[in-house]
Amino acid sequence: MLVVGRKPGEYIMIDDRIKVKVVKSEDGHLRLAIDAPREVPIVRGELLEAQQKV
């Protein structure tokens, strides 16, 4: 697992296809913008965990 620190406006690239950008960070809350091809599924962690419990 890679752990990086980013400030609002900064981003990371994954495999030259997926861009994860910090759009807002305040009071312990973080907002991310994810730009990825349509064929790449993006699922929130709590939904994935709920699906795995069934």
TrEMBL record:
Q: Where in the cell is it found?
A: Cytoplasm
InterPro entries for this protein: CsrA, CsrA_sf
Subunit info here reads:
Homodimer; the beta-strands of each monomer intercalate to form a hydrophobic core, while the alpha-helices form wings that extend away from the core.
GO terms in the biological process aspect are: bacterial-type flagellum organization; mRNA catabolic process; negative regulation of translational initiation; regulation of bacterial-type flagellum assembly; regulation of carbohydrate metabolic process
Tell me the Pfam families matching this sequence: CsrA
Q: What is the lineage of its organism?
A: Bacteria, Bacillati, Bacillota, Bacilli, Bacillales
Domain of life, per lineage? Bacteria
Q: Which UniProt keywords apply?
A: Bacterial flagellum biogenesis, Cytoplasm, Repressor, RNA-binding, Translation regulation
Q: Where does this protein chiefly localize?
A: cytoplasm
UniProt GO cellular component terms: cytosol
Q: What job does this protein perform?
A: A translational regulator that binds mRNA to regulate translation initiation and/or mRNA stability. Usually binds in the 5'-UTR at or near the Shine-Dalgarno sequence preventing ribosome-binding, thus repressing translation. Its main target seems to be the major flagellin gene, while its function is anatagonized by FliW.
Similarity field: Belongs to the CsrA/RsmA family.
Specify the protein name. Translational regulator CsrA
Q: Which Gene3D superfamilies match?
A: Translational regulator CsrA (2.60.40.4380)
Q: Name one GO molecular function term.
A: mRNA 5'-UTR binding
Q: Does the keyword Nuclease apply?
A: no
